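We treat protein structure as text, and this decision shapes the records that our systems exchange. Because each token names a local backbone shape, the row as a whole describes the fold. For reference, a complete record is included directly beneath this paragraph.
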Amino acid sequence: MSHTAEGTIRAQGPNRFVANFIMPNGQLRSFVASIDPPTDNITTSTATLTWSDDNQLNGQDRYSGTLGADVTITLVRGPTMKGTLQEPVDPTQAIVGNGYWIIS
């Protein structure tokens, strides 16, 4: 069974982004990750995290994704993050990187 949480994805300079999501239990989970190639264009008003097992949202993980009208990020463990970019990227660009989860 899949679960969803709403949040935001925002660049933290050209080499990093932070995705913050409010979980169904009210807890904040953040994914802090590198971006390759570097870009400042990752900012969403809202984003959706989808996952099937809470263990997928712990520790370190790698991802691949795309930037276009939307940002789509798929983590190796299975979770996905999707949102509409405030500044679309044209042409669509592939991104990859590594990140880690923070629970607060």
In short: The radius of gyration is 12 Å.
